[in-house]
Amino acid sequence: MSTFANQHLIMKGLKRVVFIISTLMQVAAAQQPAAPKLVVGIIVDQMRWDYLYRFSARYGTDGFKRLLNEGFSCENTLIPYTPTVTAAGHTCVYTGSVPALDGIVGNNWFDKQTNKVVYCTEDDSVQSVGSRSAAGSMSPKNLWCTTITDELRLATHFKSKTVAIAIKDRGAILPGGHTANEAFWFDNTSGGWISSSYYMKSLPKWVNDLNGKKLPLGYLKQNWNTLYPLATYIQSDTGAKPYVGKLAGSNTFPHITDTLSNNAYEVFKSTPYGNTYTFEMAKAAIVGEHLGKGSVTDFLAISFSSTDYVGHMAGPNSVEVEDTYLRFDKELGAFLQYLDAEVGKGNYLLFLSADHGAAHVPGFVKENKIPGGSLDDAALSQSLNEALQKEYKVNNAVQGIMNYQVYLNNNVLKQNNLDVNAVKQIVIHTLLAQPQISNAVDLSNIEPATLPQVLKTK
User: How far apart, in whole angstroms, are the C-alpha atoms of residue 131 and residue 128?
Assistant: First the structure.
């Protein structure tokens, strides 16, 4: 057989292969669903997984139950890093990365280069927009990698819009990523939504219009009582507990907020009305920015911060938490119906997750004879300094404790010619003497430590 014939057969075979691949691609294209007009990302700050089911007897059919019935629930998951705080959690969800790679290692951390504590989204190079306070001097500059919202804008050559909203600045800024068109958060000084010059020069009219309604003050006038008779909250402790924090001067219902004169907006954030206000802002953003109305997919990132404020105040076994989630379920259902009407059912993709959960309050654990307790970082830091003072006759060798990490004062160690490794061994020995601490390791020599590999590297 001639060379020409061989080449001819080879080419004929290639044509067949190309035809088959082309046909398969055409079939795949025909089966591929249309891109959603809008992606809605929801983070419920401090929502434990069990809240989906623990309070479900009183959930309606339009909120959490609709998501479970019509969507997918990913319940066999793992958080491969510590600490699990707001900033790290929001960043992990939106980057798919971990603190060691995305740069957001906590809400705050100590920067040895500048010798100061850094807040995760602080940025002195930008100014507040919508307020005279410094609450808007924020940006995503400390975020090292891109988010899914960044990648969407890159994939559409910045034709898509990204709007991020949360009561907490970090709950909006970090999900919005580097390229968000707008990010908004709540300001205690103005009592409304603000932003940063990183994103804009002035607030859009629709934001000013919403701020002008002074909704937080209206919510506070309603006080906070339970949706149902207090005695029917069988999943929670209904009595006053000494370990539960006070809201507006009371640790039991009703919480009287209509007479507040000082710190009213701070109290507002620790009520379910903070979530209500966030839902109102989300709806205003959809209309004001025409989200889901363009030729490409837009992204609305919403974080509900008040669930976290309530959780820290009262704990997961409180009526306050249960009532907050019963209210949230109703408002979530109404929001989904709003999306059905405004964007179109089937035209949007929505996911809901949490940045972290919450442990039981130590007082609750002790009350119920379960082993547990708490650890005071300030007291522990003092005990470490006392141990080093006893050994080396130096003061303040430990600078502080943050994110489960002990920071040594390198200037003190250097000035007194102390052996860093010897100091670390005393610190580790003192830490291990604490009944609340199971292990302590030297981060600069973490490889031989008996820790799960995932925690060593993340």
Answer: 6
Residue with tokens 């995503």: 140
* Residue 304 neighbours by CB distance under 10 Å: 30
The alpha carbon of residue 280 and the mean position of all alpha carbons in its chain are separated, in whole angstroms, by 19
- Check if the beta carbon of residue 304 is closer than 8 Å to that of residue 166: yes
C-alpha angle 380-386-390 in degrees, rounded to nearest 5: 150
Reference 370, options 381, 358, 382, 359; nearest CA is: 359
Cβ atoms within 10 A of the Cβ of 437, count?
14
Q: Half-sphere exposure of 292 toward its Cβ, with a 13 Å CA cutoff?
A: 24
User: How far is Cα of residue 182 from the mean position of the Cα atoms in its chain?
Assistant: 18
DSSP code of 361? P
The half-sphere exposure of 15 on its side-chain side, counting CA atoms within 13 A, is: 6
Type of residue found at 427: V
Give the DSSP H or E segment for 184.
Answer: strand 182-187
The residue among 208, 133, 164 whose CA lies nearest residue 303 is 164
Task: Encode pLDDT of 237-248 as tens digits.
Answer: 988 888 889 998
Nearest residue to 82 (alpha-carbon basis) of 92, 70, 96: 92
Mean pLDDT of 14-24: 44
Residues 412 and 398: their CA atoms lie apart, in Å, by: 9
What interhelical angle do 273-288 and 319-339 show, nearest 10?
20
Q: Are 137 and 122 in contact (CB under 8 A)?
A: yes
Catalytic positions are: 86
- Alpha carbons 21 and 122: distance in angstroms, whole number: 51
Backbone angles phi, psi at 119, to 5 degrees: -90, 145
What span, in angstroms and rounded, lies between the C-alpha atoms of 304 and 42? Answer: 8
**266 CB-near residues (< 8 Å, 6+ apart):** 188
Q: pLDDT tens for residues 260-308? A: 888 899 999 999 999 999 999 999 999 999 999 999 999 999 999 999 9
How confident is the model at residue 454, as a pLDDT? Answer: 66
What pTM, to 2 d.p., does this model score? 0.89
Cα-based angle 281, 283, 289 (whole degrees, multiple of 5): 90
The continuous run of DSSP H or E covering 195 comes out as strand 192-196
What's the Rg (C-alpha) of the chain? 26
Mean pLDDT value across the chain:
91
What are the residues facing 153 on neighbouring strands? none
Element (H, E) at 40: strand 38-44
Provide mean pLDDT across the span 408-423: 94
Q: Which is higher by pLDDT, 16 or 47?
A: 47
Share of the chain above pLDDT 70, in %: 91
